[in-house]
Amino acid sequence: MGYDASILIVDDTLTGRKALELLLKEEGYRLAFASNGDEALRRAGEFEPDVILLDVMMPGMDGFEVCLRMRNDPNFLDVPILLLSSLTDRDDRLKGIGAGADDFISKPFDKLELLIRVRTITRLNRFRRLREEHAQLESALLALQHTYDTTIEGWVQALDLRDKESEGHTRRVTDMTVQLARIMGIDEETLSHYRRGALLHDVGKLGIPDSILHKNGSLTDEELAIMRRHPQYAFQWLSRIDYLRPALEIPYCHHEKWDGSGYPRGMKGEEIPLEARIFAVVDVWDALLSDRPYKTARPAKKAAEFIRSQKNIHFDPKIVDIFLEHFAHQLAGNHEKNRYPLQKQASHSCCG
């Protein structure tokens, strides 16, 4: 069957057009007709055929010229053209190919041969178009993803300008989260969601008043309760965006603790999403190595000891073991390189 493929039949004789119509209509093709070259060019623009069956011997503009004109028109450049002619001379065939024809069928044609050739070239053309459309969709998707990710980067920069805990904190914890997750066997597509979640881990702090976010002293119980709303704010904002929903777990759950004492939901153990458990270790590690208004940075060795002490309390013990094996040992050699400078304006990290 023709699978709704469309064919333009170009023949100056009614007999020739009718013969092809009877043969192809039974196969389910949608058909259009033209009786001369000028009409063929006009009908091709109106009908947008999948295949053109083009008679060569026509008065005025012959099939060779019609074919050549179509190939010089971007709208018809890729439409398969089958030339039909009683001419069997080698030079005529070469002329047809030179004009841009895809195939050459001799008259009188064998019905079965013509059907097979039309069916084959139609399917090949449909397959080519599908591949092109798929490639265009992939390109558009990549462009859209790039736009979204650029927007996320802008959000993060805006947050960093307002909430400077430590220069480069967001970039460091994002990179390290992706590295640790990759070591743990997380696939690359999922890693892209981890990356976005890590970048946006503190986006909820945009809803926290400056008087609390930038307070130099300890927070009151009331202020601490307000500060701890930032994961909920992140959930409220990001869950409305389909593209970011798979990246939501880190912003929403990175303050949960393995023993259930975290917030905002008091999740426990493996109830906590894996990406949030991974990020929690990385986030605290980075905070330990950073100066804050209320503390000085710890040496890497001391930071590693603290991380290890929080197994089964704050952190997933398996993730701690993997983290210390692959990261802390590398960093402990020269802890001075791992001290992150205090910024002029700093905020409460709430990582504890």
Keywords, separated by commas or semicolons:
single chain; 352 residues; alpha/beta; Rossmann fold; Hypothetical protein af1432; 2 domains; five-stranded parallel sheet; 5 strands
SSE blueprint:
Elements: E1 6-10, H1 14-25, E2 30-34, H2 37-47, E3 51-55, H3 63-71, E4 81-85, H4 90-99, E5 103-106, H5 111-162, H6 169-183, H7 188-199, H8 210-213, H9 221-227, H10 230-238, H11 249-253, H12 274-288, H13 300-309, H14 317-331
Parallel strand pairs: 1-2, 1-3, 3-4, 4-5
Helix pairs in contact: 2-3, 3-4, 6-7, 6-12, 12-13, 13-14
Structure, explained:
- The chain has a five-stranded parallel β-sheet with strand order 2-1-3-4-5, sandwiched between helices.
- The protein is built from 14 helices and five strands.
- It is rod-shaped, with a radius of gyration of 34 Å.
- It has 352 residues and is of the alpha/beta class.
- Strand 1, helix 1 and strand 2 form a beta-alpha-beta unit.
- About 5% of the residues have low confidence.
- The chain folds into two domains: 129 residues, Rossmann fold, CATH 3.40.50.2300; 176 residues, Hypothetical protein af1432.
- Helix 3 runs parallel beside helix 4, helix 6 crosses helix 12 and helix 12 packs antiparallel against helix 13.
